[in-house]
Amino acid sequence: MAVCIAVIAKENYPLYIRSSPTENELKFHYMVHTSLDVVDEKISAMGKALVDQRELYLGLLYPTEDYKVYGYVTNSKVKFVMVVDSSNTALRDNEIRSMFRKLHNSYTDVMCNPFYNPGDRIQSSRAFDNMVTSMMIQVC
Amino acid sequence: MADTVLFEFLHTEIVAELWAHDPDPGPGGQKMSLSVLEGMGFRVGQALGERLPRETLAFREELDVLKFLCKDLWVAVFQKQMDSLRTNHQGTYVLQDNSFPLLLPMASGLQYLEEAPKFLAFTCGLLRGALCTLGIESVVTASVAALPICKFQVVIPKS
Predict the structure, then answer these.
(1) Out of B57, B60, B135, closest to residue A76 by CB
(2) Does residue B43 lie within any of the structural domains?
(3) Which of A31, A104, A133, B131 has CB atoms 3.0–4.6 Å from B136's, for a disulfide?
(4) Range of the domain at B100
(5) What's the pLDDT tens digit per position in A95-136?
C-alpha cells in the first residue's frame, strides 16, 4: 500500500499527486521532487549503457529511514513515482511492478478520453481517482 | 472483420461532412478543413502513442520509433504494415504504402488524384500525434503519385 503516488509529465511538472491525508503533504511533494533527479539519472544511464533490453520499471530509487521511493517511466517519458512505507516489508518487487502496471493502464485510459487534453492536470477522472485510492493506505 | 470497415466509413463521412457545406471552397477554406482533419488525427495519434507501446521496452533511438510507427501503429489502425521506410539519416523519413486502405476503395490509377489529399490529412495528423507523444516534434506531409500508392514524409528538424 502506497503512501503517496505521483504522475509527472515529460516536462517534469506534476499531472497528478496524491498523498495519504494524515501525513504532512509537503514532505511527500518534496520527496517526489527530489526523486525526479534520480529518475533522470537512471534514464540517461540506461541510454548510455549498451544494454539490449531497456526496462520501463526503474525499481527502488532511494530509501530513506521511513520510506522507500519507486519509479517507472513510460515510452512517452511520463514518470510515475510511488512512495511506500518502509515498515511495510511484506511488499515485494512483483507487487510494486503490478501496481505500476495498473497505474500505466489507468493513465492510458485517461489519455484516450477525448475530454482530456494532454498536458492538463488529471482532475476530473473518477476512474483514475478510484484506482489510486485502492492502492493507497486505507486511513479512516 | 467488420471492425476495420467501421473506421473507413467514419473517416469517409468526416471528410464528406467537412466538405459538404461548400463543395468548392477557395484555398483558404480548404486549408481550414484540412487543418481540422489533421488536428483530429493528431489527438488520436497522441492517445495511440500512449496506448500501443505499453508493453514494449523503451525506444532507444529515432529509427526505432519510426519502425514502431511503420509496424505496430499501421497494423493497429490499418491491419497491414507499411510497405517501405526510407531515410536520408538527416532527419527526413519517407514512409510508403503501396495500397493505402483509405484510398483503395476510391480508384486505382490517376483518377481522383486532386481529391486524394483530403483523405490523407487525418493520417498525417495521426503520425504527427504519435510522434509527439513519443517525444519527437515533426512535420508530416503526404503525397500521392497514383492511387492507392501514397508516401508520407516525416521531417524531424535538428535541434
Answers:
(1) B135
(2) yes
(3) B131
(4) 4-18+28-155
(5) 888 888 888 889 988 888 888 888 888 888 888 888 888 888
Selection from A80, A107, A111 nearest residue A96 by Cα: A80
Strand order in the sheet with A2-8: A14-19, A2-8, A79-85, A67-73, A57-63
Name B141's bridge partners: B153
Chain A contact residues (CB < 8 Å to B): 10, 46-47, 53-56, 73-77, 104-105, 107-108, 111-112, 114, 118
pLDDT digits (tens, 9 = 90+) for A54-103: 567 777 777 777 788 888 888 888 888 888 877 766 667 888 888 888 88
Using CB atoms, pick whichever of B46, B47, B59 lies closest to residue A75: B59
CA distance A57 to A80: 10
- Where residue B38 sits, what CATH number does that domain have? 3.30.1380.20
Q: Is residue B23 part of a domain?
A: no
Q: Which residues pair with B152 in a beta bridge?
A: B95, B142
Q: Distance (Å, rounded) from C-alpha A31 to C-alpha A67? A: 10
Contacts of A54 in chain B (CB under 8 A): 57-60
Q: What domains, with CATH codes, occur in chain A?
A: 2-135 (3.30.450.70)
Residues 48-77 of B with CB under 8 A from A: 49-51, 53-54, 56-60
Q: How far is B112 from chain A (nearest CA, A)?
A: 33
Residue A74 contacts by C-beta under 8 Å, 6 or more apart in sequence? A56, A80, A104, A107, B50, B54
